[in-house]
Amino acid sequence: MTTRHPPRVLDASAVVELLQGHPMMMTMLADALAGWINMLLPASAIAEAQAAVRLPASTWDHILRLHGTVVLDLTGRNALEVGIFASPRLEHHPVQPLLTGPLMAGHVLQEAVETKAVIFTRIPELYGGHDVAVRAI
């Protein structure tokens, strides 16, 4: 879709503000609905926003179908690029150890539940409290 202005990519905090009706975000949404801009929503930003606001799936279904809203899926190739950008942020993170990201763990759990798969991990405690099979390696 061609628009008059560069696209806007929203991080999780901007997605939350959009959901909460922030005036600047409502103006941006109106511009997207009018076809002047595209609002780009990375899948990881949607996941992190959902972890914060816990909306029903039906609400998200409505938002994600709005004209001018483009969901950017995390595919294999761009996941590699995301990892390159994230590496320096995680490498020296004071609280979040490498290989234990909550969104990654949530994604692994969701896939395991959906496919009835066994999770293989060096860190089985990441998946404690969930009704999934976990195998420590």
Binned, the helix content reads: 40-55%
SSE sequence, one letter per element: EHHEHHEHHEE
Strand order of the largest sheet: 1-2-3
Number of E-state strands: 5
**Domain tally:** 2
Q: Helix segment count?
A: 6
Structural class: alpha/beta
Largest sheet: 3 strands, parallel
Low-confidence runs (pLDDT<50, min 5 residues)? Answer: none
First CA to last CA: what distance?
46 Å
C-alpha geometry: elongated
Radius of gyration: 17 Å
Strand content: 5-15%
Query: Overall mean pLDDT score?
Result: 91
Question: Would you kindly provide a written description of the structure presented here, covering whatever features stand out?
Answer:
The chain is of the alpha/beta class and 137 residues long. It folds into two domains: 8-72, no CATH class; 76-136, no CATH class. It is 50% helix and 13% strand. It is built from six helices and five strands, in the order E-H-H-E-H-H-E-H-H-E-E. The chain has helices at residues 12-19, 23-33, 43-53, 57-64, 76-91, 102-115; strands spanning 8-9, 39-42, 69-72, 118-121, 133-136. It has a three-stranded parallel beta sheet. A two-stranded parallel sheet has the order 4-5. Helix 1 (12-19) packs across helix 3. It is elongated.
